[in-house]
């Protein structure tokens, strides 16, 4: 793997206005923020069912390809695999940004590899990439209240109370993505997991 290989940052979510504010779409929110930080503009990619923006992290820094797959979450892997082939991104340089039930709301965790924890977007990515060794930035949405079905919970919008903190959470998640690219997963864990 060459260190000058580009990075593919995949924000996971569902396309369409009706899903835009869902907890399941926090990956799209982070990708949008990273796009505005890089000064990149999202557009449809010719080889993959995805919106893509490109830019460099810092002056002369690593190249980032930001992607929002436009298939539904369960089928996100195919556009991710197509983009990683098109841009020649090794699996070690792929980062999935996704909602995570097992992390408390407002916290962000980075890790490399491991299971999918029932997340269909990750399952689809692992299948299509033929590997689980990509990095993940896990954006905590917490567990559903009471007996609410987790599937209904992730497809519901953030609550009014959560929305007050959402910009901060998205901003912090974007910081974690940048830290993974520039310093590595372990460094990002040491910096962001304690708080």
TrEMBL record:
Quote one Gene Ontology molecular function term: peptidyl-tRNA hydrolase activity
Q: Where are the transmembrane segments?
A: none
Active site per the UniProt annotation? 24
**Top-level taxon of the source organism:** Bacteria
Q: Which Gene3D superfamilies does this one have?
A: Peptidyl-tRNA hydrolase
Q: Which CDD domains match?
A: PTH
* EC identifiers of the protein: 3.1.1.29
Site positions for Discriminates between blocked and unblocked aminoacyl-tRNA, renumbered to this chain? 14
Q: Which reaction does it catalyse?
A: an N-acyl-L-alpha-aminoacyl-tRNA + H2O = an N-acyl-L-amino acid + a tRNA + H(+)
> Which residues does the UniProt site feature Stabilizes the basic form of H active site to accept a proton point to?
99
GO BP terms: namely: protein quality control for misfolded or incompletely synthesized proteins; rescue of stalled ribosome
Its subcellular locations are: Cytoplasm
User: GO CC annotations?
Assistant: cytoplasm
Q: Which residues bind tRNA?
A: 19, 72, 74, 120
Instruction: Supply the alphabetized keyword list.
Output: Cytoplasm, Hydrolase, RNA-binding, tRNA-binding
Q: Name one Pfam family in it.
A: Pept_tRNA_hydro
What this protein is reported to do is described as: Hydrolyzes ribosome-free peptidyl-tRNAs (with 1 or more amino acids incorporated), which drop off the ribosome during protein synthesis, or as a result of ribosome stalling.
Q: Which HAMAP family match?
A: Pept_tRNA_hydro_bact
Q: Which family does it belong to?
A: Belongs to the PTH family.
Fetch the PANTHER family from UniProt.
PEPTIDYL-TRNA HYDROLASE
- Provide the assembly information: Monomer.
This one is known as: Peptidyl-tRNA hydrolase
Per the UniProt entry, what species is this protein from, by scientific name? Actinoplanes digitatis
Name the gene: pth
């Amino acid at each position: 793997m060459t260190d000058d290989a580009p990075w593919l940052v995949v924000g996971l979510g569902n396309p369409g206005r009706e899903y835009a504010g869902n907890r399941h779409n926090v990956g799209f929110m982070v990708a949008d923020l990273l796009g505005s930080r890089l000064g990149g503009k999202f557009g449809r990619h010719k080889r993959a069912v995805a919106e893509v923006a490109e830019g460099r992290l810092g002056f002369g820094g690593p190249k980032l390809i930001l992607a929002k797959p436009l298939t539904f979450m369960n089928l996100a892997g195919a556009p991710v695999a197509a983009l990683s082939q098109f841009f020649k991104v090794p699996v070690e340089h792929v980062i999935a940004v996704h909602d995570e039930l097992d992390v408390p709301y407002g916290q962000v965790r980075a890790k490399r590899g491991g299971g999918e924890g029932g997340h269909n977007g990750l399952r689809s990515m692992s299948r299509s990439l033929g590997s689980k060794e990509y990095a993940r930035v896990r954006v905590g949405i917490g567990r559903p209240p009471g007996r609410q079905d987790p599937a209904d919970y992730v497809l519901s919008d953030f609550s009014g109370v959560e929305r007050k903190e959402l910009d901060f959470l998205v901003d912090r998640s974007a910081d974690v993505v940048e830290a993974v690219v520039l310093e590595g997963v372990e460094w990002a864990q040491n910096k962001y997991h304690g708080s």
